[in-house]
Specification:
335 residues; alpha/beta; Arc Repressor Mutant, subunit A; Rossmann fold; six-stranded parallel sheet; six-stranded mixed sheet; 12 helices; 15 strands; 36% helix
Length: 335
């Protein structure tokens, strides 16, 4: 396939990355492209049409999620399927992109097995953007996967969508759970159970401190922390920031926010305290980096990969219901 088979117009009224995708689909449908054909490199398309690399990469990533092309290391991109008709066309709305959400998304795409066309959007915890994206895309998809996060009053917005086509991901609520299937985290239960399972490690400390800035953090994390401390008679404290905080021996810090985690580790480094001996650290949400930082950070974490697989299974097999995603305390040397 040469770049001449692509049709890119400034006045098409369609995003250029979608025009690239459609050009490949058109090539397959008119038999110009067959399975095994090599498609032009990202650089070739960028130079030919004076496009940014991000635009072309977005198009190729979409073609990959559709199962139409695959990348062969050192060789390029090839047509791996000529199936351009999909039973499922999915609208996926995340709050933001980070290491955890990328894990969910990748396992979700893997779980779909190339049987769906997926468009991914982000609302960035902005209620107006959330409402606008829902409104603009209503009626254009077979299913809607929504990550409402901590946004308020989302039920009236979602009520505009066909109820049997909506799936809630990561965080749900009593109101949403009455109307929509979900794969979700039970934050209060997860925090309580994780801390309880680590009681043997906590026993050498005197006080538990939750650094809870609020905003993006689910309130369930705070509820579970308080419930545990009061049920197990722990001396505890909840603070919103580490600014001006004097850390002390015998304290354990629970850190839902990774920026706060970095600040805490810097404070500890400047002190005479030793992580895992006279000061403890527990982070929320596991990542590969936390396996090696400070010889390993203990985490409370849900199984993000399982979350993506579960929501894919729901959609492909038309399952309903509420699925509580598994969570655990990952024990490392910081505790």
């Amino acid at each position: 396939m040469t770049t001449s088979l692509f049709t890119i117009s400034e006045n098409a009224g369609v995003p250029k990355y979608q025009q690239i995708v459609q050009s490949v689909i058109d090539g397959i449908e008119n038999k110009t492209l067959v399975k095994g054909d090599k498609v032009p490199s990202i650089n070739e398309i960028c130079m030919r049409f004076k496009l940014s690399r991000d635009t072309v990469l977005m198009a190729y990533n979409k073609l990959k999620t559709m199962g139409i092309i695959e990348s062969v290391p050192g060789k390029g991109y090839y047509i791996c399927s000529v199936n351009t008709s999909f039973k499922h066309k999915l609208f996926v709305l995340f709050d933001e992109l980070n290491a955890f959400k990328e894990n969910i998304y990748n396992s979700f795409i893997e779980g779909l097995k190339g049987k769906a066309d997926v468009d991914l959007y982000f609302h960035h915890f902005n209620s107006k953007m959330f409402k606008s994206l829902i409104k603009e895309n209503n009626g254009s998809y077979t299913s809607y996967v929504i990550m409402p996060a901590v946004l308020k009053n989302v039920a009236p917005v979602l009520s505009k969508l066909p109820a049997n086509k909506v799936y809630i991901l990561d965080q749900t609520s009593d109101e949403l759970a009455k109307s929509y299937p979900a794969v979700y985290q039970n934050f209060s239960k997860d925090v309580f159970s994780a801390l309880d399972s680590g009681s043997d490690l906590l026993s050498k400390y005197k006080k538990l401190i939750l650094v809870f800035p609020g905003g993006k953090e689910p309130i369930g994390q705070k509820t579970g922390f308080v419930d545990f401390c009061e049920a197990r008679n722990w001396d505890y404290e909840i603070i919103s920031s580490l600014v001006d905080r004097e850390i002390a021996s015998g304290e354990v810090y629970i850190m839902p926010n990774d920026n706060d985690l970095v600040s805490l580790l810097k404070k500890i480094k400047k002190s005479n305290l030793l992580i895992g001996e006279n000061i403890g650290v527990i982070s929320y949400n596991d990542t590969p980096l936390k396996e090696v930082v400070a010889d390993g950070i203990t985490t409370i974490s849900t199984d993000f990969s399982q979350m993506g697989k579960s929501i894919a299974d729901m959609i492909l097999n038309n399952k309903k219901g509420l699925v509580e995603n598994p969570s655990m305390l990952v024990r490392r040397s910081s505790l």
